[in-house]
Each structure stands twice: as structure tokens, then as C-alpha cells.
Design goal:
Chain A: This is N-alpha-acetyltransferase 30A. Chain A: One of its GO terms (cellular component) is NatC complex. Chain A: GO terms for molecular function: protein-N-terminal amino-acid acetyltransferase activity. The complex is a heterodimer. Chain A is built from four helices and seven strands, in the order E-H-H-E-E-E-H-E-H-E-E. Chain A is α+β, with helices and mostly antiparallel strands. Chain A has a domain of 106 residues: 3-Layer(aba) Sandwich (Aminopeptidase), CATH 3.40.630.30. A seven-stranded mixed beta sheet of chain A has the order 1-2-3-4-5-7-6, sandwiched between helices. Chain A is globular and about 40 Å long. Chain B has a two-stranded antiparallel ribbon. The two termini of chain B are 58 Å apart. Chain B has 30 helices and two strands. Chain B is 62% helix and 1% strand. In chain B, helix 1 runs antiparallel to helix 2, helix 9 crosses helix 15 and helix 10 packs parallel to helix 13. The longest helix of chain B has 46 residues. The N terminus of chain B is likely disordered. Chain B is an all-alpha fold. The chains are: A alpha+beta, B mainly alpha. The interface between A and B is large, with 53 and 71 residues.
Chain lengths: 173, 803
């Protein structure tokens, strides 16, 4: 029942790399723009991929980029808390249902954990069932609903995954 | 490294903006210049740039940019630059092109030079000029004329100011109502209402009907804004308060004159109608109906604003109600005559062929991505208004609710039904706060709360007829407690937050619950002070006072009951907002099943028992008095009247207790059902790699942790209870779940004259009972598919559907 992480036999071999070159930016933009209801300016892409190139992971089938995840990590909202943030995730429609999205998110979480993230947050469209199922299966909780969050008037859900060991024993005592 | 090619002109813009943010000398100013350049200019710059060499970075200096120039500063303070965006400031420009190019040459393709202050927000708010998805100006090409202003439209003869045909009036009026509705739905006033040029300068309109209608709309805007500001339950996603204030301010609002002006025009037109042959007067009557609808709607809303200063809440609300009634009677007539008006041209953005300039304010919008504006269709707009008028009428009923318990119930119900409309929510807030202020005088909150506790469980110390109420020590303790309650504002906040949109309510409830803790502590202290005092009075031989003070749990029960309700609403709102994944349902239903609903039932039962005991005691006392020889005619009457009243009051919370019993069984059913489905392998569980159920559990119940009572329940406790449940076989679990649903059905069926909610819950209980039984018998045993959970009948409970 769970999302399969392993690609079934016969599916293409996917390799994963982190962002390292401006030339990849067009591919990233191309993948993301197909997914999103609203545009991101070039500044937004650059903000992420140049500040946290290690957290921009690309999925590649031979020469073709087929998936990407763009993240950041900082502690601006709370100096005590390193927050990872998944800004964008997209998989080429032709390569869906092969666990690429899942793998990208897992890899990104691993990277952010390695950078001492306490939690990982993101927003997604409330109507995006596929994304919600993916994040549910990874243990994210939907913390907040944001009404009319997107330009097209659709609600968003804010999701959160606590990853650090030290906060697990906090709260209820 | 490879240079920037002309195929990627945007790269250059990014680089320039980035360089601008960098510490490089005058880059900041230059970026502003570059942002104003066209694409081809950018390319030219690029080519130049390639030839430039790297230079030393200069210190950024304020004076260099001219901002220290006193005249520039004066101009900036005066806001003249902001007023006319087409004019550059005259002073303070320094040419830094050269330095800028040199600074840029240091960067690799795509590389960011980024200022500390350039964060995610700035990156996301920045737009790429000339991209039509981002740059609002791209809607106009160079052949486009600027959108006509009022003056221009008049000069061109594009709008008529006099002698409008009835069809034209209907068209403009209907379009304006559609704009009003679109504004109330969260669009910017400038991009909907003020696209109507007639609204810009109504005083210049000669046609009286049109002029007065436009003046009414402008005044309505002002009044609605006031109501929403006063109610303060709006959030940025609900409503945009701000608009072109210069336009709005150009003609002074005089709301008190509106009804009279509208009435005058109506009368004139009606007289005119009478002179027309019967077949020709219908269009004109359709105009009259719209003017009349506007008059009554306006009056109703304006009176809501005035209610704060009314002398009698009842009278004021009666007036409002009368106006709403007339307005709602007019709407069917108006809806039938929409076709008589001029209709919007197909494909045009304007809601009416004449009088609107759709993009007139696009350029004065905040410089972010343009939000698309969709003005509602006319029939849908009137539908909205019809429903809104009905909501206002319903809101008027709040005036009957003079105590906290019933007012809170009303607010919760109202929010469920009208939660999406900001004006309806605001109207309710205003009506209620005026109503309790008028009912309880100046010290409204404190007196309101006193009255509320009395209405809830009538402690003898609050009964002014009881001699113990005048005990100075009692008075002092009560004063302290209610002052504290008023200062903490928690109760008031609970009612107020029901006015926010549903998503925000949950966030606010989380904070509210925390605030109940100090109140609980204080209420427990007050109750124990009363008990102490009972002992003192008993020692003094004052039996009457001692009995009245003894065994007091009134205040702590009252506070706890309200806290439990906040907790239940908080927890269950997560279903409505779709915040819970299916694998989380188990512990979410478990908590109210195991604790919360039971707490509510016992608080209410305790309250009923207290009331009963008090009444029995009072009856006993009055019997003693009667037997003691006071039995005149008056005494007899009193005695005859009392038992009747008592019987009615004995179980005031019976309905609510039954409702909670049903809830308890439904929660139990869902908890056990989720246990069974999980054990049966029919629930998609998260992968264990990152998931930690304990963390999820703790986050879900985090708002309850600060409370002393009820004490927090740790994950370990939950886990041991669940593990114990899970020892049973899957079939047993399904059967137990079915039993719970059957119990719920029984309880719900016992309710006489059930409301729709009860019927819906009944259907859920019945269906789930069947589904659980089917599963218990091993249906689809091999097919481990997660069922569908359909919340369309009720926001708290789903119908479980096997696919």
C-alpha cells in the first residue's frame, strides 16, 4: 500500500545530482513552471539555487532532467530552530508514479537532517492530493490551512515534519 | 566560464538586481534605473558590460545618491513622488552606470550578489519586467490607449451623464451590485468598484437616479468599511480594507441623507411610471426596485453601524430587521428583470458596456504579481446578496441571547453557516457587542459575565434576592474574580474568535485554550473561598448563608465547561480544514472518546444536579416558611407558580447532554473502527524512515499541554491504551465499532423533532454500523484497500465507504 521507493523493473534508470551549474536553471524552471499555478520570478529561483545549491536536487534520465526539488535551510524565524523548507517539487508527467518525487523528498530531508534541521516545512495546494499523499506517507503533519493563499484563490496547507531528536521528547511530559 | 548569451536576457536582469543588492558602490540606485529599461536596452548594456573590467568597489554613501539633499528629503516626506508615479524625483540622481557595469563584471553567469536584506520575501515579490504573467503593464501594448478616466470618458462622449434610458440604468446598477459583491469577496476596491467611472464623481452626474445611486454606493462603501473595522474579525485573506482613499474622499460621505435622497428619486420615478401606458412602465419599475432595494439594504447596514449609539437594542434591531425584510422581498423582482438591463459585452472585462474602465487602477496596485480579478456574474451576485440579507436577518436574532452560554452557542452555529462572508461575520459582532452593552450598561463585560454564570448554574451568591449576596466578603471575592475574568478577556475572546474565518479560528483557539488555565486556577480558588466562608458562617450559626456557600463548584465548573468546549472545537476543526491524514484519525477520535466528551457530559450533569439540589432546598425552605404561618394569599400564589417553573428548569441541559452522548458513541465508533482498519492493514501508514508517531501526537495535542485541568495525557498513556485495544482480533474490533455506532443511532433516534445536524449524524451512524458489520464478517478480506472517508454530511464524522 505504501508508496514504493524502488522503481519497478523495466522503468528507466534515474540518477540524482545536486545543482552545480547555471545551465541547469532552464531545466529547473521548465519542470517547475509546468507544475505551478503561479509564476516564480527568476529571482526566486536564483535565491534558492545559489544560496543552497546542495539542497537543489535533480533527477535525471540519461540527458533529460525529469524531476527537481528546491529547498533551503535557515533559522531566521526562530534562532533556536533550524528550519528546512521545501520550496518547489516537480516531476515530469511522463515519469510519474515511479517514486521519483518520493526519492527526491527523501534525499532532500536527509540532506537537511545532515545540516542539523530541526524541522522541515512546506506549503502545498489543498487540492493537490498526490502531493498530500506523498507527504503524509513521509510523516508530515498538515499544521495549518491558509485560505486563498495562492494568486488563483486556492487554499494552501502548511505541512511540517519534525526531524531532530532533541525536540521529540519536548511537549507532553 | 561561459558568458551570458542574448537568448537569456532575463539572466542579465537578475544579475543587475543582484548586483544592486550587493555592497557594490552605487549599485542600488542603478538597479532602479535598470528596472526601468526595456529589453533591448538591457541587451545593449550587456554587450557593453562584456568589455568592462573589474574595478574597486566604492563605499556606498547616502549623500552620493542624493538622498541627503534637503530638498529631496522634503519631497520624499511630502510624498509627492508617491502621488504621481510617472514623475521622477527632480533632484538627487547620480549617473553610476560605469561603476555598475564594472561591479557586474565580477559576477559569474547567474551568480547572486545578495544583500542581507534581500530575503525570500523580496525574491518572491520581485517581478520580471515585460513578462506578462508578472508585469501588469504588459497588458497594454504601445497601441493601447490609456484606460479612460472619468474626465476623458466624458470628453470622448463614452459615458452619458444625463437622460439615461431605464435599460442603461439597470445595467449600471446591476454591474455595481456585482462589483460590491466582488469587493466583499476579497477583491481590491480599486479593481472592482472604482472601475466604475460614475463612482469617481457622482456630483457631476445630471441623471438624478444614477447620481443618487452612485452616491449611495460610495456611502455604502464607507459604512461597510466602518463596520468591518469596528468588528475587527477580518484578515488579509478575507477582505481588502484599503483602496484609493483620494477618490473616496473627493466627495464627503453623508450616510444620514442617503435614504431620503433615494426615496425622493423613487417617488419621482413612480410618478413618471404612472403617466406611462401600462406596457411601457416595466423597465422604469425595475429601476425603482433597484433604488428601493439599495435604500433598504443601505439603511439596514447603516443602522448596524449606528447601533453602538442606539438607546434600545431591541428597537434598533427591529428597524434593521424591517429593512432587511423589504430588501429580501425586492430581490426576486430584481432577479427577474436582470435581462432588461444592458448586458456586459462578451469577451470584455467590463461588467457593463457603459461607465466602466476595467484597468484604470492596475498601475496603482502594489508592485507584485497581478491578481486576476473576476467580477461575479449578475445572477450570482444577486444570489449572494439574497443569502447575505438572510444571514443578516439571522444575525439579528443574537439580541435574544443575553448570557454567555446561549450567545456562544449562537456564534458557533452562525460561524458554521456564515463563516465565509466577512460582512455577515462583522455585522454579527457589532450587533452583539451593542446589544450586551445596551443590556448591561457601562461595565458591560463584568456584568455580562456575572449574569452569564447565574444563567448557567445560578450560584446563590449571585442571586441578588438571596441574603448571602449582600455578604461583604462574598461580594469582595466575586468582584475580584469577575474583574480578573474581564481583564483576562478570555470569555470575550472565545465569542469574538467565532467571528474569524474558519481557518484562523483554529489558530486562535490554540492560544485561547492556554488562557483558560489561569482562569481555572482562579475559579477553583473562588469556590474554595466560598466553602471556607460556609464554615465560618456555620460557626456563627448563620445556616442560611452557610448552606448557600457550601459545596460550591459553580465557578470552576463554568470555566471548565467553556474550556472543554474550546478544546473540542479545536480538535474537531482539523477535520473540516482537512488537516488530519487518515492514519491520524485514531488518536484524534480517541481523545474526545476517552476524555473530552465525558468531561463535558459530567460538567453539565454536575450543573444540573446543583440546580436540582438548590431548587429542592428552596422548595423545602418555602414549605417551612408556609408551614411556619406566613401562608397568606400571596404565599399561596407563589407556591402554586413555583413547581411548574421548576419542572421546566430541572434539566436545562438535557438536549445538550444527549447530543454529547451521541458524539461520545460516534467518537468511540471511529476510534475503534480506525483501530480495526489499521490492524486489518487497510490504513496507509507512513513510512517509518522519518515518521515519528510520538512527535505527531505531541504536536496535535500541544495546545492542551499548558492546562492544569484536564491534565495532559502523554503519548505513553495513549499508546498503552491503544495497544490494549489492539489485542482484540480484527473481527472483534469491527464488531465493537459497530456497537458504538449502534449506540449512537439509538441516542440520536431518541431526540424529538431532530434538526438537520441530528439527521445527518444519524445517517452516518447507521451507515457506519452497516459497514463495520460487513467488515466484521470478513467482506473483501483479501482486498486491503483503504476505505474512503466522506465528510460531506458532517464536518466531525465521515461516512466510511468501501470502494
Amino acid at each position: 500500500m505504501n508508496e514504493s521507493k524502488q522503481s519497478p523493473p523495466g522503468t528507466p534508470e534515474i540518477s540524482y545530482t545536486v545543482f552545480n551549474d547555471e545551465s541547469q536553471l532552464k531545466a529547473i524552471q521548465g519542470l517547475i513552471e509546468k507544475e505551478l499555478s503561479e509564476p516564480y520570478s527568476i529571482y526566486t529561483y536564483r535565491y534558492f539555487v545559489y544560496n543552497w545549491p546542495q539542497l537543489c536536487i535533480l533527477a535525471q534520465h540519461e540527458e533529460r532532467y525529469v524531476g527537481v526539488i528546491v529547498c533551503k535551510i535557515d533559522h531566521l524565524s526562530n534562532p533556536e530552530l533550524w528550519q528546512g523548507y521545501i520550496a518547489m517539487l516537480a516531476v515530469d508527467p511522463e515519469y510519474r508514479r515511479q517514486g521519483i518525487g518520493s526519492t527526491l523528498v527523501e534525499k532532500a530531508i536527509e540532506m537537511m537532517k545532515a545540516e542539523q534541521a530541526d524541522e522541515i516545512a512546506l506549503e502545498t495546494e489543498q487540492s493537490n492530493k498526490a502531493a498530500l499523499r506523498l507527504y503524509d506517507s513521509l510523516g508530515f503533519i498538515r499544521e495549518q490551512r491558509l485560505l486563498r493563499y495562492y494568486i488563483n484563490g486556492v487554499d494552501a496547507l502548511r505541512l511540517n515534519l519534525t526531524v531532530s531528536r532533541r525536540s521529540s521528547d519536548a511537549s507532553l511530559s | 566560464m561561459q558568458g551570458i548569451t542574448t537568448e537569456q536576457p532575463t539572466d542579465f536582469q537578475a544579475a543587475t538586481a543582484a548586483a544592486a543588492a550587493a555592497a557594490a558602490a552605487a549599485a542600488a540606485a542603478a538597479a532602479t534605473v535598470s528596472a526601468m529599461r526595456t529589453k533591448s536596452e538591457s541587451r545593449d548594456l550587456e554587450r557593453e558590460r562584456e568589455g568592462n573590467s573589474i574595478s574597486e568597489q566604492d563605499e556606498w554613501s547616502v549623500s552620493e545618491c542624493g538622498f541627503n539633499d534637503p530638498e529631496v528629503q522634503r519631497a520624499m516626506r511630502g510624498g509627492s513622488a508617491a502621488e504621481d508615479i510617472t514623475q521622477y524625483p527632480i533632484h538627487g540622481w547620480v549617473d553610476v552606470t560605469q561603476e555598475f557595469h564594472e561591479a557586474c563584471a565580477e559576477l559569474l553567469p547567474g551568480e547572486l550578489a545578495q544583500d542581507m536584506l534581500f530575503g525570500l520575501f523580496e525574491a518572491m515579490s520581485a517581478i520580471e519586467i515585460m513578462d506578462p504573467k508578472m508585469d501588469v503593464g504588459m497588458g497594454f501594448d504601445k497601441f493601447d490607449l490609456p484606460p479612460p478616466s472619468f474626465e476623458a470618458a466624458v470628453a470622448m462622449g463614452a459615458i452619458k451623464l444625463d437622460a439615461l434610458e431605464p435599460a442603461e440604468l439597470i445595467g449600471v446598477f446591476d454591474a455595481l451590485f456585482a462589483c460590491l459583491v466582488s469587493w466583499l469577496e476579497g477583491n481590491s476596491m480599486d479593481q472592482v468598484l472604482f472601475t466604475c467611472l460614475y463612482l469617481h464623481a457622482p456630483s457631476q452626474i445630471q441623471d438624478k437616479a444614477l447620481r443618487v445611486f452612485c452616491i449611495a454606493v460610495r456611502n455604502l462603501i464607507v459604512v461597510i468599511k466602518n463596520i468591518i473595522i469596528l468588528a475587527a474579525v477580518n484578515e488579509e485573506e478575507d477582505f481588502q480594507l484599503y483602496g484609493n482613499s483620494a477618490l473616496l474622499g473627493a466627495e464627503k460621505a453623508q450616510p444620514a441623507t442617503i435614504a431620503g435622497q433615494l426615496k425622493d428619486v423613487e417617488d419621482e420615478l413612480v410618478r413618471k411610471c404612472k403617466k406611462l401606458p401600462p406596457a411601457e412602465d416595466q423597465n422604469l419599475m425595475a429601476v425603482v426596485h433597484r433604488l428601493r432595494f439599495m435604500r433598504h439594504l443601505f439603511q439596514a447596514i447603516y443602522q448596524v453601524e449606528l447601533m453602538a449609539s442606539a438607546e434600545s437594542a431591541e428597537e434598533a434591531v427591529n428597524e434593521i430587521y424591517k429593512n432587511l425584510n423589504v430588501a429580501s422581498e425586492l430581490l426576486p423582482l430584481i432577479k427577474r428583470t436582470i435581462e432588461r438591463g444592458t448586458q456586459p459585452v462578451e469577451g470584455s472585462e467590463a461588467p457593463n458596456p457603459m461607465g466602466f474602465s476595467p484597468r484604470i487602477h492596475d498601475r496603482s496596485q502594489p508592485p507584485t504579481f497581478p491578481r486576476s480579478i473576476k467580477i461575479r456574474e449578475r445572477p450570482a451576485s444577486y444570489q449572494f446578496l439574497e443569502e447575505m440579507v438572510a444571514r443578516f436577518k439571522y444575525a439579528c436574532k443574537v439580541i435574544r441571547h443575553k448570557d454567555y452560554y446561549s450567545a456562544l452557542n449562537f456564534f458557533i452555529e452562525y460561524s458554521r453557516k456564515s463563516g465565509h462572508c466577512i460582512l455577515s461575520r462583522s455585522v454579527l459582532q457589532n450587533l452583539f457587542s451593542s446589544s450586551i452593552r445596551l443590556a448591561h450598561g457601562k461595565q458591560s463585560m463584568k456584568r455580562f459575565l456575572r449574569h452569564s454564570v447565574q444563567a448557567f448554574n445560578s450560584p446563590p451568591v449571585l442571586n441578588l434576592k438571596h441574603p448571602v449576596a449582600s455578604d461583604p466578603k462574598v461580594q469582595q471575592h466575586l468582584e475580584t474574580f469577575f474583574r480578573y475574568c474581564t481583564n483576562m478577556n478570555t470569555f470575550n475572546q472565545f465569542i469574538r474568535l467565532c467571528g474569524f474565518n474558519r481557518a484562523r479560528q483554529r489558530d486562535k483557539l490554540a492560544h485561547l485554550i492556554e488562557n483558560f488555565d489561569p482562569l481555572q486556577v482562579d475559579a477553583v480558588r473562588l469556590d474554595s473561598l466560598m466553602n471556607q466562608l460556609a464554615n465560618e458562617r456555620a460557626m456563627e450559626g448563620n445556616e442560611l448563608h452557610a448552606t448557600a456557600l457550601k459545596h460550591s463548584t459553580h465557578f470552576s465548573t463554568w470555566v471548565l465547561y467553556n474550556c472543554f468546549r474550546a478544546m473540542l472545537i479545536y480538535l474537531m476543526s482539523g477535520f473540516e480544514l482537512e488537516l488530519y491524514a487518515v492514519h491520524e484519525f485514531l488518536y484524534i477520535y480517541w481523545y474526545p472518546y476517552e476524555f473530552l466528551v465525558g468531561f463535558l457530559v459530567s460538567a453539565l450533569t454536575r450543573t444540573e444536579n446543583i440546580l436540582l439540589a438548590q431548587e429542592e432546598y428552596a422548595e423545602h425552605q418555602s414549605k417551612l416558611q408556609v408551614n411556619g404561618g406566613g401562608g397568606g394569599a400571596g404565599g399561596k400564589n407563589r407556591k402554586a407558580a413555583k413547581p411548574k417553573k421548576n419542572k421546566k428548569q430541572q434539566r436545562p441541559y438535557r438536549q445538550e447532554i444527549i447530543y454529547y452522548h451521541a458524539l461520545l458513541s460516534l467518537c468511540g465508533g471511529m476510534y475503534k473502527a480506525m483501530g480495526a482498519l489499521t490492524k486489518d492493514g487497510r490504513v496507509r501508514l507512513p513510512m517509518s524512515k522519518f515518521d515519528n508517531e510520538e512527535i505527531r501526537y505531541n504536536r496535535r495535542f500541544a495546545p492542551f499541554v499548558p492546562l492544569t485541568s484536564p491534565p495532559p495525557v502523554s503519548y505513553a498513556e495513549f499508546k498503552s491504551i491503544r495497544d490494549h485495544m489492539m489485542l482484540s482480533s480484527v473481527e472483534e474490533l469491527y464488531s465493537v465499532a459497530a456497537k458504538h455506532f449502534d449506540q449512537a443511532r439509538n441516542v440520536l433516534e431518541s431526540i424529538q423533532n431532530p434538526e438537520q445536524e441530528i439527521l445527518d449524524l444519524l445517517q452516518i451512524a447507521r451507515t457506519n454500523f452497516v459497514v463495520m458489520n460487513v467488515l466484521a464478517r470478513g467482506h473483501q478480506k483479501e482486498l486491503k484497500r483503504q476505505p474512503e472517508f466522506d465528510f460531506s454530511k458532517h464536518t466531525y464524522f465521515p461516512i466510511i465507504k468501501l470502494k
